[in-house]
Automatic annotation (TrEMBL):
Keywords: Signal. InterPro entries: Cyt_c-552/4 (IPR023155), Multihaem_cyt_sf (IPR036280). Pfam families: Cytochrome_C554. SUPFAM superfamilies: Multiheme cytochromes. Residues 1-20 form the signal peptide. Residues 26-107 form the Cytochrome c-552/4 domain. This is Cytochrome c-552/4 domain-containing protein. It comes from Sulfurovum indicum.
Amino acid sequence: MFTHFYRLALLLLSVTSVEAALENATCKKCHPVIFQEYQNSMHAKASIFKDPVHKAVWDKHPAKKKNNYKCAKCHTPSDHQLLSGKNKLKANAIQLNEPISCQACHTIQRVEEHTKANKNIHTSKEKYFFSANKTKKGKKVVFKEEKSLFGLITKTSGSPYHDIDYSNENFYNGKICLGCHDHKQNAKDFSVCDMQIKQGDSKETCISCHMPQTKGSLANQKQSTTHAFHGVNIHRKPVNLSRYVKLFLAKTDNGFVITIENEATHTLFPQPLRLSQLHVSIERAGKMIRLAPVSFRRIIGTENKPSVPWLATEVITDNTIKALEKRKIRYSTALHKGDEVVVAFGYYIANPKTAKKLGIDDHGSSKFITLTQKRFTIGQ
Ligand code: HEC
Ligand code: HEC
Ligand code: HEC
Ligand code: HEC
Ligand code: HEC
């Protein structure tokens, strides 16, 4: 009796998911905390209908005239009709709610490396998800019902909806992110964006830094105190990532040196739109002395002039901070005993000049976001 009821409930669950046409609607029922976080992530907002910055660039792209949305592969892979060429780009429920759905990541079996851009290879098994868990590493959990007492008592194990495969190494070392995030070339075989990943001696991965364990259960039916954070988004003030970018100050004879230590295993803000800056001010005898900001950016273009990404053939200048780099910036302002030096490192989503040209300067995209800040009191 109970088993029948249970089967019926499961059946209903899968029927509603088809009707709603949203893959995440089922996950939401059992993984509400993760679902809620995901709603605020850039993965839930990667389409032109939810990300004004992506839209502004797409609006200027030559492929727009033909409505040939070539960005779908990474920005909206869950719009399967669009990817397979059956539909053109339009504001459907997937574009609006889950352009990169839960399954878009959890079914990635491996990442194929290519020069233009890498490619995600998905498992073809239904309701079969990869995940990482150190204590279960290597296991494959198949949903099981065990019947006893002539079928009156049903014991279940695993998730009552899907199988889980804990043996995919790419979910442990972070490689599952690199089908979309590693690099991207334009039609002129030039890398518009490249994370220039370097692991070095770092024990951290894309997942340990960007999806740290956070309070709240990973599923309704399972008592766990924490779950992996799913709200990746740098458009808001980043809270838990500042500790990976450290600031130091050393006084010299006629000035001082600020060191920015980047513990990330990739270039900081490598995207052509971004601008990161170091802001330094000195509080001295009740007065504030603001020093000129120092900018870090990668300017791309052609024939020695900056250009839009799809026309670029060369790097014009690049002083972005590389993976695991310690960058030293020298200042020639002498410090006095009792000075308070306030040092802040942060970024603009879109360089204010470009933001203006793209008409997105009123979206908050051209506001300075402080990633990390430190105050130094000068002795001696
Ligand atoms: C009927 C409830 C239910 C539904 C629906 C459901 N899950 Fe689960 N899921 C669970 C439970 C319970 C677990 C924990 C299983 C365990 O640890 O033994 C789980 C575990 C997982 C895990 C692995 C967690 C780990 O330990 O690393 C992933 C990944 C996952 N679910 C993804 C999804 C996705 C994606 C969807 C939607 C397509 C979904 N789930 C829908 C109940 C559900
Ligand atoms: C190979 C995968 C891939 C393809 C194809 C791709 N992108 Fe992206 N794009 C990304 C990733 C990953 C990010 C996030 C990178 C980051 O934040 O460092 C991104 C971010 C962006 C951003 C910045 C968005 C923001 O809110 O700051 C813009 C603009 C953008 N892409 C435009 C495009 C356009 C236009 C196309 C199609 C012509 C396109 N991309 C195709 C992977 C891709
Ligand atoms: C299917 C492609 C895809 C996969 C897989 C993917 N991402 Fe993304 N990610 C994107 C795109 C596209 C964006 C940019 C969306 C935008 O800004 O419009 C993005 C945005 C981000 C951002 C925020 C950047 C911002 O502009 O706010 C972070 C951080 C991030 N991803 C980390 C990860 C990590 C960590 C993984 C692996 C666990 C991962 N991503 C896997 C496509 C992907
Ligand atoms: C040691 C920690 C650490 C590791 C490891 C790490 N990151 Fe980051 N990542 C950062 C920090 C710090 C930033 C900049 C702060 C922020 O998000 O505002 C950042 C920024 C990003 C952004 C936003 C860049 C932009 O301009 O939009 C993306 C996307 C991203 N990381 C993806 C990845 C991927 C993919 C990997 C794995 C190859 C990875 N990260 C590994 C710490 C890390
Ligand atoms: C950008 C790729 C990506 C997307 C999108 C994504 N996940 Fe995950 N998810 C991961 C990765 C990677 C892990 C493994 C984290 C770890 O090692 O702790 C994970 C872990 C999990 C876990 C196990 C949590 C834990 O603490 O181990 C569950 C459950 C889960 N995801 C469910 C979901 C659901 C539900 C959605 C959609 C609302 C979703 N995921 C969307 C990449 C993703």
